[in-house]
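User: Show me a protein chain along with its predicted structure.
Assistant: Here is one chain, sequence first, then structure tokens.
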Amino acid sequence: AATARVTAAEAAIELYELRARFSGTLLRLDLSVGETSLPMTPVAFVADPSRWIIETKDLAEVDIAKVALGDPVTVRMDAFVDEEFTGKVMKIDPVGRLYLGDMTYRITVTLDEADPRFLWNMTAVVTVKSKGE
């Protein structure tokens, strides 16, 4: 009976473990020991700093027709005014969103190289070099 209780307790503990779906680095934890969280409430920030992804939110519908998967991009970040970074379009959201009164589309860009100076949520300007340009 004691063994069964230990097994049940170990199984119950597993329900209280937080696990990421990928390996990475814990950058921030917004939960204290013993604190309760609600479902769908972020409590930690885990990321893979060796791969950087940028998601745009304001690509106008007149421009999205010129963008294709794999198109090269240049990225300028407000924090590094005189520098330019390169990457590729990895995803195009097929559903437009209303943003500041215009229909816009999101694209996801993967940068070619990580930079240890990058921080999450930095502002960037992405320029897509569409085919034919």
